[in-house]
Amino acid sequence: MVRSDLRQGLNKGHPTTPIAKTVRPSQRKGIQSARTKFVRSVVREVVGFSPYERRVMELLRNSKDKKARKLTKKRLGTLLRSKRKLEELSTIIQESRRTTH
Hints:
By secondary structure, the chain is mainly α. The protein has helices at residues 34-47, 51-61, 65-76, 79-100. 58% of the residues lie in helices and 0% in strands. It is elongated, with a radius of gyration of 25 Å.
């Protein structure tokens, strides 16, 4: 809101120009950089999947979604993390189906 030279009201006060705030590193928390994304993809390619992830992928292939959800929740701690992991693994399964066929 632009201030006017009025003494009272919503726009009261001396007219000033607003200064843009700089973005702090703490405000960037959770945003994935291109470098981090690349490094994680290379590590995934080299190392592969953990045993529980392989088991979950097998359960998803056999349409045992509920059991897969329970297993990932037990391993990861929360339902939200479990859902994200299941989504990630199901997209990996779909990508592998596309490349093989």
